[in-house]
Specification:
The complex is a heterotrimer.
Chain A lengths: L1 H35 L25 E4 L6 E2 L6 H5 L5 E9 L5 E11 L8 H5 L5 E4 L13 E3 L6 E2 L5
Parallel strand pairs in A: 2-7
Antiparallel strand pairs in A: 1-5, 3-4, 4-6
Chain B lengths: L3 E4 L5 E5 L11 E7 L2 E8 L7 H4 L9 H4 L7 H16 L5 H30 L3 H20 L9 E2 L2 E2 L7 H24 L2 H7 L7 H7 L4 H4 L7 H4 L20 H23 L20 E8 L4 E8 L7 E5 L1 H7 L1 H5 L4 H11 L3 H5 L1
Antiparallel strand pairs in B: 1-2, 2-3, 3-4, 5-6, 7-8, 8-9
Helix pairs in contact in B: 3-4, 4-5, 4-11, 4-14, 5-6, 6-11, 11-14
Chain C lengths: L3 H15 L2 H38 L15 H10 L11 H18 L17 H9 L2 H11 L3 H32 L4 H6 L6 H4 L1 H18 L25 H26 L11 H7 L4 H22 L5 H29 L4
Classes of the chains: A alpha+beta, B alpha+beta, C mainly alpha.
């Protein structure tokens, strides 16, 4: 009787050992596979591959004001983006232009954009009625001087395109 | 990382674990009372990453506060946004178009898979195996690339808004997701070989951190933690939102309530998520991706509550509105907070090595607890 | 044919012809000492680099590849950094023991180097109790570890050192029994005899099943002896107690770190000697033609190849398996490895007596 119990114990013991060894070997086979197949390596060597890097076109890098070849933009100074922004990243400073008819018209003087506060939430792009701003794809924003992070988005000497209201 | 504060008179040792961890849990500070190597008491000290999100939301309008909630439980950010958007829609009685509902559910399930992948890698790393972490990130990278093409961001995607989604799907979306599903199915077998079937992992996780069904309910656990003890609590089945009542999937429960059961529940949930995505991917209806809403949203006076199932458990969004453009008070019922409260009950009497296994299986994300 | 023993013969002749015998002997001592220190330095640098590259490829990433072509100067840069760090002695620590502990571990590693045969007739000291000497001296490294843990004046270092000491002492038993089973087949303790007895085939092929079991137990036991994963609870990076070398920084830490990798090399060298023939090329029985072809490859290349193969196996273990808890670790030894190795010793004796080997 005791002999039978001993045989059962021995059988379980040996089965335990074999199961353990088999599961270990399966795990090792997996890592061994990755060791031998170097093509599976997916590391991108970042600073060297800047030319071939292509980011998605909708990637939210920073906000830019779209200028076309004639240095004209589409921003009317309506401040919809400033109202939509949750944390005060955008500040629109307006001035008053004299149109050829002689009437006073509101136009944008400076589009102040605080890159250090922006959370790239995209609400300003969605709120703009004339599609004047978009998200650019650059992600390398580090600078040594914090004042460089407060940007003026409209270029020098640019003006509003005709026909935008 | 660890300092000894002092000894109590009975010969106990009080040590601090955290707030800085080598693993990926976040800033959690546990004060553990040890007797030799056995744990007698665990006291979590929270608040190291409290950013007063609920107070901030009181000064933001109903369209603006959603981006902040992405940063609460950053691993399931779509689902957080989804919960807030649903609560606002409940208040305004907005009808979301069908196309937007399908897109929201697919994004939710992709986020759930990504979150569970990271949990899997981090759990294996806590137990000492460093290789599965990198393999998990390879799959997660595929998902974040899909998100990047459509939403524009990889971690805190402010894509779901009250009324629908923010932008149309990218034309490559369906092709990419199909490619991902194929990749994932071939890798799932590898996960079993490398981690689940391994005898060492099983011995480290079985019978460690057991919590019974009654205790799970009384501590308020939800999500995979409760389901591993046998509690039926999947919000997607009990209180379905969007089109969850039209898809077929199973709710996974196990009976033992130990760390290995929680592990198996999450792995099987990943497979169920794949099943949901496969059912929905080809039949997305045409239509608007966002309902037409007013420019400024004003909720009527009252209280509104919406619950969603994140990767960690039940997230509740509770908005109290006085009729203005900003909420009067928002409260988030976070799943991690209740799950963490069950930690002491689980590890009392076990050794230090088991504490790490139990904490890993709870899948805590500390910004979710501290908000 | 290129052979290391020629070099030693030439140096010996030159020294004896130019100086009197005592001075020649003395200068040979110094040369051997310098050679072994150089060997340690080179080994330390290359093994750490090999580990990082092997780990990286298994984890589907590239390893260090910036410093130097393909990153080979990475370890040199790391050593320079460690040299320049401040070597802090904690307040209240026993200064003498604290400083002595890394040196004890290093000295033990150098002593074990003596009987190992790197190539044909290229052994520092072939004593007739080679294997016994190795087991005895390797047990002394526990003293260094316990010294380090005690002298740090830190409860967690002491706890880690105690655990580590318990682990090493237990696993020495299984390692010793595995080694003993090969000695039973050979009939001699000296390293040279063991290698020469494998002239017609390596022991792992000649004594089939018992030698295979012995080899598996030996590999598991030496992984535990050198505190490598999956048995590295005592120095785990993401567990609580940070191990016996917590309080060490700068050069002393570098010595511990180096000593760990040297130990791995040495135990793999011993394993290669016992089971795979050391510097003996692969011979199959009496096939003279095949044996003659195999003899063309120099014996030092055979030795290095086998050792590096075993080192790779140990590294493979580290990056695949998680850690065992301390009680599971001791459980494994006392309930599984020790009975199996004792039974295996009996089996091997039976095979030796009845002549059931090739």
């Amino acid at each position: 009787m005791a002999f039978l119990i001993f045989i059962m114990f021995l059988k379980d013991y040996i089965k335990d050992v074999f199961e353990a060894v088999r599961s270990m070997l399966k795990g090792m086979r997996m890592t061994g596979y990755y060791f031998t197949h170097r093509k599976e390596i997916i590391t991108e060597q970042y600073p060297d591959n800047r030319e071939t890097l292509n980011l998605a076109e909708r990637f939210r890098g920073e906000v830019v004001l779209i200028h076309d070849e004639k240095n004209e933009h589409a921003c009317t100074g309506c401040s919809a983006c400033e109202i939509a922004c949750p944390n005060g990243t955008i500040k629109i400073i307006n001035k008053f232009d004299i149109t050829p008819e002689g009437k006073k018209k509101k136009a944008i003087d400076t589009f102040v954009y605080h890159l250090e506060l922006c959370t790239m939430c995209n609400l300003c792009i969605v709120a703009c009625p004339t599609d004047a701003i978009k998200m650019a794809q650059n992600f390398e924003h580090s600078v040594f001087d914090r004042s460089k992070l407060t940007k003026k988005l409209n270029n020098e000497g640019s003006k509003l395109r005709e026909g935008i209201e | 990382m660890i300092e000894e504060i002092g000894r109590t008179t009975e010969g106990d040792l009080i040590i601090n674990v955290g707030p800085q961890h080598p693993a990926t849990h976040g800033v959690l500070h546990l004060v553990i009372t040890l007797n030799g190597e056995t744990i007698k008491k665990v006291e979590p000290h929270l608040g190291y990453i409290h950013r007063s999100i609920e107070k901030m939301c009181e000064s933001l309008s109903y369209r603006q506060f959603i981006y902040v909630t992405s940063r609460m439980d950053y691993l399931s950010s779509h689902i957080n946004n989804h919960g807030c958007a649903l609560c606002v829609e409940k208040g305004l009685q907005i009808e979301v178009p069908q196309r937007a509902q399908y897109i929201r559910v697919i994004m939710d399930e992709l986020t759930r898979i990504a979150s569970h992948e990271l949990w899997w890698g981090a759990m294996a790393m806590d137990l000492g195996a460093f290789t599965p972490f990198f393999h998990a990130f390879r799959e997660r990278e595929t998902i974040t690339d899909i998100m990047e093409k459509t939403c524009g961001a990889r971690l805190t995607m402010n894509y779901i808004v009250p009324g629908g989604v923010m932008a149309e799907l990218h034309p490559d979306f369906q092709k990419d997701v199909k490619h991902f599903i194929q990749l994932y199915k071939s890798k799932f077998e590898e996960y079993n070989e490398l981690v689940t079937g391994n005898v060492i992992f099983q011995n480290r996780m079985k019978s460690v951190g057991v919590i019974s069904k009654e205790d799970a309910i009384s501590y308020g656990c939800s999500g995979p933690v409760a389901r591993a003890s046998g509690v039926i609590c999947d919000i997607r089945k009990l209180y379905p939102y969007d089109i969850y009542n039209k898809v077929e999937f199973e709710e996974i429960t196990e009976k033992e309530g130990d760390s290995f059961a929680r592990y198996v529940v999450r792995l099987k949930e990943m497979q169920q998520s794949i099943r949901i995505i496969e059912q929905l991917l080809d039949i997305i209806p045409e239509g608007d991706f966002q309902a037409k809403t007013k420019a400024v949203l004003k909720l009527p006076k009252g209280e509104f509550y919406q619950r969603v199932e994140t990767a960690r458990g039940e997230l509740g969004v509770y908005i109290v509105s006085e009729g203005g453009t900003t909420p009067y008070r928002i409260k988030f019922r976070s799943p991690g907070f209740s799950n963490l409260s069950a930690l002491e009950h689980m590890v009392k009497g076990l050794k230090i090595g088991d504490l790490v296994a139990a904490m890993g299986s709870l899948d805590l994300v500390i910004p979710d607890i501290d908000r | 044919m290129f052979s290391l023993e020629n070099i030693t013969l030439i140096i010996h002749e030159w020294l004896n012809s130019h100086f009197n015998p005592t001075l020649a002997l003395l200068s040979e001592f110094i040369l051997v000492g310098l050679a072994s220190i150089t060997l340690f330095a080179v080994l330390g640098l290359s093994l750490v680099f090999m580990e990082r590259k092997v780990a990286a490829v298994m984890q589907i990433r590239l390893g260090p590849n910036r410093v130097g072509p393909k990153g080979i100067f990475q370890t040199t840069a790391d050593t320079l950094k460690l040299l320049m760090k401040e070597g802090l002695v904690p307040d209240g620590a026993d200064k003498f023991l604290f400083t002595l502990a890394p040196f004890v571990v290093m000295i033990v590693a150098m002593l074990i180097l003596a009987p190992i045969a790197f190539a044909k007739n290229f052994q520092i000291w072939d004593i007739n109790i080679g294997v016994l000497y190795l087991s005895a001296v390797s047990s002394l490294s526990v003293i260094g570890i316990l010294m380090a843990g005690w002298a740090s004046n830190n409860k967690y270092s002491l706890l880690g050192a105690m655990r580590s000491g318990a682990q090493i002492v237990s696993y020495e038993l299984s390692a010793g029994l595995s080694v003993l089973s090969i000695v039973v087949m050979t009939g001699s303790l000296s390293i040279k005899d063991i290698i020469l007895s494998q002239e017609n085939g390596w022991w792992i092929f000649k004594a089939h099943i018992p030698a295979l079991i012995s080899f598996v137990i030996f590999i598991i036991a030496v992984t535990a002896e050198t505190n490598r994963a999956p048995f590295d609870m005592a120095e785990a990076e993401s567990e609580l107690t940070a191990g016996f070398h917590t309080e060490y920084s700068g050069m002393r830490f570098a010595l511990f770190f180096l000593a760990e990798y040297i130990n791995i090399f040495i135990v793999c060298a011993i394993g290669a000697t016992l089971f795979f023939g050391g510097w003996m090329p692969l011979h199959i029985g009496q096939w003279q033609g095949f044996n003659h072809v195999m003899d063309y490859i120099p014996s030092s290349i055979w030795f290095l190849g086998k050792t590096i193969g075993l080192i790779f196996l140990i590294m493979w273990f580290r990056w695949t398996f998680p850690r065992l808890r301390i009680d599971q670790l001791l459980n494994l030894e006392w309930k599984y490895l020790l009975p199996i190795s004792m039974f295996n010793l009996l089996l091997m004796t039976l095979v030796a007596i009845m002549g059931w080997h090739f």
